[in-house]
Amino acid sequence: MKRCTLNRITRAAMTLPVAGLALLMAAGPAAAAEGSARATLAPVPVNPVNASGTGSVQISGTTLSFTLAAQGLLAGAPHAAHIHFGETARNECPTASDNNAAALSGETDPHQHFTTTEGAPAYGEIVVSLTTSGDTSPASGLAVDRFAVGDNFEYSRGDVQVSEEVAQAILGGKAVVVIHGVDYDGDGTYSAGNRGVSDLDPSLPGEATDPALCGVLNATPVGGVAAGDGSSSTDESSTLPYVLGGVGLTAAAGAAFAARRSSRTTA
User: Fold this and answer.
1) What whole-number distance in Å separates Cα of residue 123 and Cα of residue 214?
2) Comparing C-alpha atoms, which of 37, 195, 54, 182 is closest to residue 111?
């Protein structure tokens, strides 16, 4: 009977390290979105734009802060700007091959115009409207009275609320900043001209809504560690000794417990 009892205790002690390891593996912290990302904005292919810009964001949970700057766009005109993301999109800036050359209403030379609709398969839908004030949801995507105006601007906003999915997409390099507004005919204003009306809103000229600049948001290093999904990057080889050390301590404790029980049983 004593030998059977000792065997049961020994087997129980041997299972403690396995159970402890399972708990260590299951008790990892949730990956909260935390970090920053930056985009370098370059002209969209096809469209006659000689401009540049940058966009940077800070993410803390589901709160976003951003700074947007651009130089060389159409002076005296509003420039709608957004963060785009789509689950089925390529989540990148478009290429010239994305121009399907399908004529839109009033458009007489589609090969010379790259529209927002044509770029959607590359960069996805609007998830944040980078307005200067008020609402920042996709519903404000065409709120031309609340976007930056001019050929040279820089502005910042904080406390923009986004979904967890959008926060993770931004820090995962899957979100794209797009600034709109292209003066195709060079008349110094947004007009219908050969481009016709907007594919997004027929009450607006297409020049006002076609994409001008684009850039993918890429996570930036924070404290020397790249911000990926908001969690710290750790080398598995460096953590393994600590995990195994913890398991060894658990095993030692289990063996000591079994030895004490054994001594009492055989006494």
Assistant:
1) 9
2) 195
What are the chain's domains?
Answer: 2-29+236-266 (no CATH), 34-225 (2.60.40.200)
Please give the Cα distance from 64 to 62 (Å, whole number). Answer: 7
Nearest to 115 by CA among 94, 88, 86: 94
Residue with token string 């951003």: 66
What are the per-10-residue average pLDDT scores of the chain (267 residues)?
44 42 43 89 96 97 97 97 96 93 79 92 97 97 96 96 96 97 95 92 95 97 43 32 33 39 42
The single-letter code of the amino acid at 22 is A
Residue labelled with tokens 């709120």: 143
Q: Model pTM?
A: 0.72
Residue from 68, 171, 166, 85 nearest 120 by CA: 85
Residues near 238 by beta carbon (within 8 Å), at least 6 away in sequence: none
What distance in Å separates the CA atoms of residue 196 and residue 191, rounded to the nearest whole number?
8
Among 108, 104, 92, residue whose Cα is nearest residue 45: 92
